[in-house]
Write a structure and sequence with these properties.
Shape: globular
Strand content: under 5%
Structural class: mainly alpha
Distance between the termini: 36 Å
Number of helices: 15
Length: 327
């Protein structure tokens, strides 16, 4: 895997910056949430390249949006100097599939609808990897360990934590091999994951040992700093002046028994704000990372709005979940 040089990405980054400028603005998502019908909401998305979405059910909508992402990834893989940069975003689908395979190993037949075709490995390839007792590597080793943990503890959360650790380890290795592209974004992702684990562990009344197993190394904030504060419900000083300052304040409310939604939104918005800053970098690998992460956010919000309309959720309730996208 070759290291990324920004000069290699001059043309493609200019194209992706133009695509970012044509993404769905926040005010359009708001109007979609207030639309009278799912079809009326979907019509608004057509102007931004989302035509022909199947609104029969949330699952068919998921399938349509997954197809959109897969087509975009395929197009980018054909023009990028090093398509392995896409692996930073495909990885999470490999690990999503790994979690599903581990949990469903004793439940036959496996529900194919829970598996994603958007990872580095096809569904058949990851099934084969899971079944191959002689295979190795970060993903395979993590699946094996997660299976053993689940069998021993019957706790799916602990099995997931092991796979999450491997996921972030592989992300860091991928970024390093690519010359450090997206290091800052990955560190922020880890910080978000660790703060999320802290909040949920407190809310569930878990032990410090449980939290220690869930925390990931490699973020901007040393994971030991959170362990030292356990089970303090106010850790906002650890994040003062940083991108998660607002999220940490909502974290205190969530740990005190308030709704967790504002905290989750604040974490998402911190990632969005980080990406917005990278848009001042006109060219280079950061432009590619910014576009791919923004695409993920757009697809996530589009799914949330249209699924909400399909299920008859009131517009105000949908808007409460919208992120600060493309503002």
């Amino acid at each position: 895997m070759s290291k990324i040089r920004d000069n290699d990405y001059l043309c493609i980054s200019a194209m992706l910056r133009a695509k970012e400028a044509r993404m769905i603005p926040a005010e359009v998502f708001t109007r979609m949430a207030d639309a009278e019908t799912p079809l009326a909401a979907a019509k608004m998305a057509e102007d931004y390249g989302y035509a022909g979405l199947d609104l029969t059910s949330p699952q068919t909508l998921d399938d349509s949006l997954a197809k959109v992402r897969a087509e975009i990834y395929q197009d980018l893989a054909g023009i990028m100097p090093d398509a392995s940069l896409l692996d930073l975003f495909r990885l999470k689908y490999d690990y999503h599939n790994a979690k599903a395979l581990v949990k469903n190993a004793s439940r036959l037949p496996l529900q194919e609808s829970v598996l994603s075709a958007e990872g580095r490995l096809s569904i058949e390839e990851i099934k084969a990897l899971f079944a191959d007792e002689t295979a190795g590597g970060i993903l395979k080793d993590a699946m094996t360990e997660a299976s053993q943990t689940l069998a021993k503890t019957e706790n799916p959360q602990l099995a997931d934590f092991g796979l999450d650790l491997a996921y972030f380890k592989e992300m860091r290795e991928c970024a390093k091999a690519l010359g450090g592209a997206s290091d800052g974004y990955i560190k922020l992702l880890i910080d978000v994951a660790n703060l999320n684990s802290y909040v949920r562990s407190v809310r569930m009344g878990k032990s410090a040992d449980f939290l220690k197993f869930a925390l990931v190394e490699g973020g901007s904030l040393d994971a030991d700093m959170l362990l030292m504060r356990w089970p303090d419900q106010d850790v906002s000083d650890l994040y003062a002046g940083g991108p998660l300052e607002a999220a940490a304040k909502f974290a205190g409310e969530a740990m005190g028994g308030w709704k967790i939604t504002p905290f989750e939104l604040a974490c998402d918005n911190a990632l969005t704000e980080y990406l917005a800053k990278t848009r001042y970098v006109a060219f280079g690998a950061d432009a590619v990372v910014s576009y791919l992460a923004s695409l993920d956010t757009e697809l996530m919000d589009l799914r949330m709005v249209l699924s909400g309309k399909i299920c008859g959720i009131p517009g105000e309730a949908i808007k409460e979940r919208l992120r600060d996208v493309n503002v």
